[in-house]
Amino acid sequence: MSFVLLNTIFFGHKPRNDALTAFPRKPALLLALAVLTGLAARPAWAQSAVAEGQKIAFDRGKGNCLTCHAIKGGDLPGTIGPELKDLKAKYPDRNELVAILFDETKRNPQTMMPPFGRNRILTEQEINAIVDFLQTL
Amino acid sequence: MKARASLLLGSLSAALVAFALASPRVVAADKVDPVADAKAFQDFFVRKFPNIKREDFVNGPYSLNEDMKRQWQEKEEFPPYEFALDAGKEMFATPFKNGKTYADCFPNGGIGIRQNYPYFDTAEGKVVTLELALNRCREANGEAPYSYVKDEMASLTAYMAFTSRGKPMDIRIPDDPRALAAFENGKRYFYTRRGQLNFSCASCHVQSPGERIRAEILAPALGILNAMPIYRSEWSGMGTTSRRFITCNSQTRAVPLEPQADEYRDVEYFLSYVANGLPISGPGARP
User: Fold this and answer.
1) Whole-prediction pTM value?
2) With contacts defined as CB-CB under 8 Å, which chain A residues touch B20?
């Protein structure tokens, strides 16, 4: 067993394709905005952030989370990851969820889950919107 | 719990890697040993799926799921690859403009030899796949090469696979350091994560066989080439090994290589070698 799985790690730190991951640096302003979006209490747009988060999570070109996770309201889920539910109870601190989405290989180097933040698949705002949505599950 | 278990496995492996890195002796001892690799590889799948017979792994996703197996058996009554098989048989028998045929390029006239491909060519110092050998045969006889991914190439390899059905995969690694290096390179390619989504081939075909990725059931890496070429409904046609490698790379947002690039030849060598002993089942049909 060790050979077959361990190789994933031994060879796991090769340079990745930079052409795909390169991304223009975001202005500090946007970053600050993203942090605000994530942290500030904002009942007025909370609802729309959740809806936006669900849209990004289900979008095949964005989160495409259904590829691996069953999620309430989504069709044709895969079975690679666990069903996403009761996440607020499991991760009371939303930053834990942000961290999982940003780069789950930090917790589990062998995970199948793509590092959405680290590899710039999703922006901070998009991750925060998805986390808003995840907390309603 | 699945998430916990994989988390635990992850940190355990991380610890082992840290140990290996800290101890040069362990790294040095990690020499290329294809025989041990093939055994570990096969044992891993046999242990993971104790109810599946070793020779059944060659049926890809169909081996892992009873419902799918039934669908497949029904499909085999009117196999969708039959047209390609017939075309391939005819092409194989039709002489080139110079009067020679494919049979002149291959051992045993090309019949019943699929299980020996790819092989390491000690003259060239590289891996030669069946697809590559077919195009070289054409070019040597003054004919234009075929596209590597479908149509004529799929028909020819379908026919050649068919004449080898049931024969155990029999890939050799000659006593040549370059052959060992090709095996090792293929293995590295297979286990290296790449692309924006950070997947390796092993992420899908070693870590997750039998799981559904959306609606598709992931095939186990053991025997994954024995059924090539395959008919896929998704392609509404046949595809070769080259086509499948390119599709897997591009569908996971990694940059695909050219068909028959050295890495693809090497990964085919690696995957075929570790499937030694498992029967050729091609051509195959997939959902």
Assistant:
1) 0.85
2) 10
